[in-house]
Specification:
Helices cover 53% and strands 7% of the residues. The chain is globular. The chain has a two-stranded antiparallel sheet. By secondary structure, it is mainly alpha-helical. Strand 1 and strand 2 form a beta hairpin. The two termini are 21 Å apart. It has one domain. It is built from five helices and two strands.
Length: 156
């Protein structure tokens, strides 16, 4: 594959899938649902949150890939899109200094089936791979708006 960035993304997708499988597949349901405190999420809730969040972006990504995407007006303000992109990156990294509250629509499902959540996450990640390898039509800027809050745009 010629695109080094895409190669890295695909490697990371595979690595995360392996890590989730290796670390969580053999856990009991009670372990997957355990929360260290009422304000913290369980492993199952974290996996559900990732599925819910990623999936909400699929329609926009598909429209970018199909060449039918129309950029929101706010995405033409590079300072604004860059700002929100940096905010998100600072709050989801491995070392988060200032966590933010998750938007209600990005929260984990209410009734998570702990028996199937790891398998569902693995299936979700395998669905992300084909989307990741498709190419965008030339000339399309990849600034997309938050699917749950249209006034916020990100530039990747």
């Amino acid at each position: 594959m010629k695109n080094a960035y895409l190669t890295d993304v695909l490697f990371r997708l595979e690595q995360v899938s392996r890590d989730v499988h290796d670390n969580f597949y053999n856990l009991e349901a009670v372990q997957l649902l355990w929360q260290p405190d009422p304000e913290s999420w369980s492993i199952a809730q974290c996996l559900s949150h990732l599925i819910v969040t990623d999936t909400s972006y699929f329609p926009q990504v598909e429209s970018v890939l199909n060449g039918t995407y129309t950029r929101p007006l706010l995405s033409y303000l590079p300072l604004l899109t860059g700002f929100w992109g940096r905010v998100i990156l600072k709050t989801v990294g491995p070392r988060v200094n200032t966590p933010i509250r998750t938007l209600e629509k990005f929260k984990p499902e209410k009734n998570i089936n702990a028996e199937t959540i790891v398998r569902r996450y693995e299936e979700h990640m395998s669905n992300c791979r084909p989307i990741s390898v498709r190419r965008t039509p030339s000339g399309i800027n990849a600034s997309i708006s938050n699917p749950r809050q249209g006034s916020t745009s990100y530039t990747a």
